[in-house]
Design a protein that fits this description.
heterodimer; A: alpha+beta; Gyrase A, domain 2; Elongation Factor Tu (Ef-tu), domain 3; six-stranded mixed sheet; 21 strands; B: alpha+beta; OB fold (Dihydrolipoamide Acetyltransferase, E2P); 23% helix
Chain lengths: 363, 131
């Protein structure tokens, strides 16, 4: 038996198909994954993301600590509630995890890390925090529900009452405390929406009321097709400890300004000096079929590999992220069960706010 | 609870087979299999004229989640495949035992068909798998 979120019984009662995800028993769908996907693109859907781990970091030197720990620079966070996406690296430059960090006060930052990496993350952060006298507290008392889609905020706000109405004023990538809820305008779908942290004891009740107010229950299956259409990396697929963020489409999250000594910086600078051999690209399958992770990609400059692939319900064709030689462009071939099928390198995201981005995707 | 028609035979890898009046055998995947796979988005059907041994991988069904091989329940030569699945693979979800058929074989040995699982034996396979 795997770990269970406070919503486990709710999912089972709703007839969800449960699967193991990073050691957790999670709903993959409640019926049709494609319908759940479209609910988020066109209206409102919700995901139980309570398996992700909320960490509260406190101490007088917490900002200084995070400038050392993270490859993105929390110096960018000047307004309380503002969030930042960042990689956390080993000294050798591999990615321990990707995460979101919120600036709460000068002595308190909040972090959300992945479920499958929580134990190693907590161990690593706690070890690094010692010399900065920063306290690391996992918030196991909190559940988290992501409501996503063009109508998600409005529908969720109704349920959350006055707290929800006040949260409507949140800007993009900003969070804050509203009564018993921590609400942030973030997500993993390429749509507008919130991630709501709430007392675990209230999760089942709020979930039911969200559902009664027209927010569709969605499983991890739809979450994966939505994030891939939105061109967002999945830890463990698109990057891990064995690859550089510079070869994972994450250069935009690395801040080399000044002489800030973040963990992994020396290794990344050495890589840049030697030249970056590979890059992460979007692929659009020209033939019929479905791209899947680990399929071989054949390019003029050498072979690459698909890191995430799926059928895109919005585009009704197959899309993927792939790590390929840096000079690869144009059309490539993908080995699908021994057949070589044509795919085109395209810019990603593939879909944003419900709209295909393919028209302007010539790289 | 998944639907297991009594007039069909089954393979423990979740294919169904139906003996037609002309002696040919129609093949598809069971209601349980389509439900486990979820929304189907692509089906690779076998070419007409190809010959397969019993248990050989001869078609592929792909859902949003995963790709899965379809194994031939009996040995034989493919005499037809369901071309409607190319544009509408979801027929397998909506009607796995009807419009969602995948291919039809001319069996090598008619006796082989009778050795397949009947509905009650296939039901026990599902039970043993914990469904």
């Amino acid at each position: 038996m795997g770990l269970r979120t406070p919503l486990y019984e709710t999912h089972v009662a709703a007839g969800a198909r449960m699967v193991d995800f990073g050691g957790w028993d999670m709903p993959v769908n409640y019926g049709s994954q494609i319908e759940e996907h479209h609910a988020v693109r066109k209206d409102a859907g919700m995901f139980d993301v309570s398996h992700m781990c909320v960490l509260d970091l406190t101490g007088a030197r917490v900002r200084e600590f995070l400038r050392h720990l993270l490859a993105n620079d929390v110096a960018k966070l000047t307004t309380p509630g503002k969030a930042l996406y960042s990689c956390m690296l080993r000294e050798a430059g591999g990615v321990i995890d990707d995460l979101i960090v919120y600036f709460m006060t000068e002595t308190w930052f909040r972090m959300v890390v992945n479920a499958g990496t929580r134990d190693k993350d907590i161990a690593w952060i706690t070890e690094q925090a010692k010399t900065f006298a920063v306290n690391v507290k996992p918030r196991l008392d909190l559940a988290m529900i992501a409501v996503q889609g063009p109508n998600a905020r409005a529908k969720a706000a109704k349920v959350l009452g006055a707290d929800g109405e006040r949260a409507q004023a949140l800007g993009v990538f900003v969070g804050g405390e509203f009564g018993r809820y921590f609400i942030a305008r973030t997500g993993y779908t390429g749509e507008d929406g919130w991630e709501v942290m709430l007392p675990a004891t209230e999760a089942a009740d709020i979930w039911r009321r969200f559902k009664d107010n027209g927010i569709a229950q969605c499983g991890l299956g739809a979450r994966d097709t939505l994030r891939l259409e939105a061109g967002m990396n999945l830890y463990g697929n698109d990057m891990d400890e064995n690859v550089s963020p510079l070869e994972s489409g994450l250069a935009w999250t690395l801040v080399f300004d000044g002489d800030r000594k973040f963990i992994g910086r020396a290794a990344l600078e050495a890589q840049k000096q030697q030249g970056i051999a590979r890059k992460l690209v979007g692929l659009l399958l020209e033939d019929r079929g479905v791209l899947r992770s680990h399929q071989k990609v054949i390019t003029a400059g050498g072979d690459g590999e698909i890191t995430s692939g799926t059928f895109s319900p919005t585009l009704e064709r197959s899309i993927a992220l792939a790590r390929v030689p840096s000079n690869a462009t144009g059309t490539v071939q993908v080995d699908i069960r021994g057949k070589l099928l044509a795919a085109r390198i395209v810019k990603y995201p593939f879909v944003r706010n419900g709209k295909s981005q393919l028209a302007n995707s010539q790289p | 609870m998944s639907n297991i028609p009594a007039n069909l035979k089954y393979r423990d890898s979740h294919e169904w087979a139906r003996l037609e009046s002309d002696g040919t055998v129609t093949v598809g995947i069971s209601d349980h299999a389509q439900e486990a796979l979820g929304d189907l988005v692509f089906v690779e059907v076998p070419e007409v004229g190809k010959k397969f041994a019993a248990g050989a991988a001869c078609a592929v069904v792909e859902s949003v989640k995963a790709a899965s091989d379809v194994y031939s329940p009996v040995a034989g030569e493919v005499i037809a495949s369901n071309s409607a699945l190319s544009a509408t693979p979801e027929l397998i979800n909506s009607d796995p035992y009807g419009e969602g058929w995948i291919f039809r074989l001319k069996p090598g040995s008619p006796a082989e068909f009778n050795q397949l699982l009947d509905a009650s034996a296939y039901g026990k396979v599902l039970e043993a798998e914990g469904h």
